[in-house]
Amino acid sequence: MATAPAPSPSPVATVIGKEQAEQVFARYATESFAAEERRDEAAVAALQTGPLLEASRARYGQLRQGFPVGSETRYAQPVFLLPAERDQPGHPRSFVVLSKPSWDPGGAETAVHYFVQEAPGGEWKAAAASWLNDGPTRKPKRDAPYGYAGFGLRDKEIAPVARDAAGVVTLSPTAGADREVCGRYEEYMTFTAPDGEPQSADFVPGPLTSGIVTAYNRANENLDFVRKRYHFEAVGGELPVVRLADGKSLVTCTFLRTDHWTGTDSAFRYGTGRFKDVDALLGGGNAWWRDTTVRRSVTVSFEVPTAGPAEVVGSNSLKAPMISAEGTPR
Questions:
Q1: pLDDT of amino acid 252
Q2: Mean pLDDT, to the nearest integer, of 293-309?
């Protein structure tokens, strides 16, 4: 008597179906580009939420004033990471999309978008966007127009995303502990120059960690005349933590970076070089200031091991988009 074939495993229910996720991302990719061209804050508010929306609104205002700021990227070849419903039984729910820039779809550089649904039946909106390398790096076909949205990327690619037997993306079982990297980075990046400590037991040294602290410590203005204080604050809701095939976790955090600059014995100005964007947002004219407060939106993606220091795989800390700027003129 023939043995009956083993039944196929039942499909795993995910927080969103693949077809709907494809529609959500296609709408986002198309309409966010159009909203930026129109500087339409109401339209982008239907597509984004949290710090990502705040940064877009600020960018639209700067574009309306004619500032040369980065724009939306066109995306290609999306890969959808849809968590199982059992892993996100309530709300908010979220999923992740990996995609390539349309100008170099064969490269290693990959955009990471996090979409969130706050309540049952609610709209899915993008809550954060980052970049990383997920393959061997090579020179792009042409230079990225805005340096991949201002992100610096670790050369080494991340491991593939871990999946279960049914092919569903695996979320980290230690997501809460993994997300603590956000608070550790907040402390690491909050200091008064030149007293930032590049070396940290919490982070692997390199261009995206110790190199950034060193850059903040060496900012152009003479520190004999300007006191520079940098403050990082983790903001936004919790994002899904994806487990990688090597056992590490991919964690993305969003921060509000606040730069307080104060003239010690005299006024200062930003000049027409590296900090000309700050000068423009403050009103232009290379004016003199007694103190300024500049707020920027920072996004950082980390590779977090089960033990040992985390490593930054993508960060816009050096080229973070401005949210606002104010100051006391001389």
A1: 98
A2: 97
Residue 317 has a CB neighbour count (10 Å cut-off) of 26
- What's the average model confidence in pLDDT over 286-314? 96
Q: What single-letter DSSP state applies at residue 163?
A: B
Between strands 109-117 and 93-101, the pairing is antiparallel
Q: For residue 83, give the DSSP letter.
A: -
Mean pLDDT, range 217-232, rounded to an integer: 81
185 and 253 in contact (C-beta within 8 Å)? yes
Cis before residue 92, ω within 30 degrees of 0?
yes
Q: What is the pTM of this model?
A: 0.91
Average pLDDT of the residues of the chain: 89
Is residue 262 within a helix (H) or strand (E), and if so which, with residue range?
strand 249-263
Enumerate the β-bridge partners of residue 101: 75
Contacts of 99 (CB under 8 A, 6+ apart): 25, 29, 75, 76, 77, 78, 79, 110, 111, 113
> Closest Cα to residue 314, out of 131, 158, 100, 139?
131
In sequence order, the β-bridge partners of residue 220 are none
Predicted confidence band of residue 150 (pLDDT cuts 50, 70, 90): confident
Distance CA 15, CA 11 (A): 13
Of 132-141, 166-175, 218-227, the least confident = 132-141
Please give the full DSSP string across 2-69, using - where no structure is assigned: PPPPPPPPPPPPBSS-HHHHHHHHHHHHHHHHHHHHHT-HHHHHTTB-HHHHHHHHHHHHHHHTT---
With a pLDDT cut of 70, the percent of the chain lying above it is 90
